[in-house]
């Protein structure tokens, strides 16, 4: 054993203490995952060494055969895991094994569900996999040396997981990291070759470097114990380089769990090898659930990048557009340089070609999922629908394809579920209908009961109901689908085209002409509150509504701009009234202009409330309404 110097005892960060308590006392239903997490970390350490050695070959220190070794000692009740990867220096050890990013810990704690099996799988996703060692061990020793540093700068980290750890400097001739788990008395089942082999085959068969276990060799009587022979227990070949026909579904699923640090199987995957002008392999996955940082557009994202099977980058974001940031997977190129960087990736024309092809592949995968597994796609949409709605603005080339994948609530449903695709909508459209009608609003109840829908209910025309905050912004980028234009039923002067008969149109014109006097009186009474007053063709039951001008911002967009501190362009609504409604007929016959003004403003404010808007002067509305109630009760 090396002489230890510069020994000190340090306390764990508060978050680590909480986590260790959780690991030791709660997340124990699937104990074997500790080995998966430690092997995954060792694999990352080897990948990092491979990458850094491209620029500094001396880091390999003559030992270019990279591997992970797992051994055990039944008598000592220990399991040891060793890698010859990048290793850690003293500062690395204190940073990586003594602290966790606060946000990662908070999100980890927040995502716990109370289901031990599921919760225990979460640990890798939040970068806290090392601490799973304490599920089975009551003491953990880590011996490490960073590649490129002298043997005298090795470091020994030790802890019983009780709130503090010791760090000392040691001599360590080999680079890399050795972790020794001193098993709890009830966990000695893991100090067994057959048990360890099964866990490695189950969780880590896909790891693209050898994972070795000692061969079970018995010495003949009287002979000395032979030197340890090692055998590789995993396939040790990059899964994405193998032909699809040779890879089982279970292998694809386990590989996904490894790269995504997820515990659920993916919804779908696509494995392809491209040959010809460009040569690359890709393995892309659609997760079953959203990651905790999905809506943080600046959060790390992207595919694992390999060049000729050499790991280069963990989150290469240049291969897919931002709206597909939830896609996990690997891309392995033969055409990129091994010393590629993020900056070079952004400027390389090869990347543009690969990005275009990979994007199309993901959209094809989602189309197939929507067509063949509608229930699965429904789950996908709940998790990732709002992110997909960013697509039409970001990806003009695939706008039609993305539009086909969008899902909305509609007047055909009664629960607000977003399950209606645009193709389904057009398949149900009325004969002669050449428009796709929609209405945006803050809540499903508000839009479903909106007066703007009255004429559509009367004629049995389906309207899409859009209530996500992003929807109005989305529709500003979607002008048409399958040759049919989108029409906001609350905007401009509604024209139902062929869905209105010539008789209907003629009758509407005659009514409008007969109410010109009322229009002028309302304009005078409402003054600067409105841009225009006109007879409505949308209403059958309500007395009045507020329509939005063709070029004006709707309520959703105004709220988004206000929330981001931007100046909102001033606009005034269009006041439309229903000439056949009793209130409007009463208003038309009102001779007292003061009373006419009060009634007009009450109708205007009620229309604003029905549209989901806040009243500019609620007190004035209440005063007018009370005055009217007093008159009626007199």
Automatic annotation (TrEMBL):
It is found in: Cytoplasm. It comes from the Bacteria. Residues 1-342 are annotated as: A. Keywords: ATP-binding, Chaperone, Cytoplasm, Nucleotide-binding, Stress response. InterPro entries: HATPase_C_sf (IPR036890), HATPase_dom (IPR003594), Heat_shock_protein_90_CS (IPR019805), HSP90_C (IPR037196), Hsp90_fam (IPR001404), Hsp90_N (IPR020575), Ribosomal_Su5_D2-typ_SF (IPR020568). Pfam families: HATPase_c_3, HSP90. ATP binds at residues 37, 41, 83, 88, 102-104, 125-130, 177, 342. GO terms for cellular component: cytoplasm. Residues 560-634 are annotated as: C. Residues 30-187 form the Histidine kinase/HSP90-like ATPase domain. One of its GO terms (molecular function) is ATP hydrolysis activity. Molecular chaperone. Has ATPase activity. Homodimer. Belongs to the heat shock protein 90 family. This is Chaperone protein HtpG. It comes from Pseudomonas sp. MIS38. The lineage of its organism: Bacteria, Pseudomonadati, Pseudomonadota, Gammaproteobacteria, Pseudomonadales.
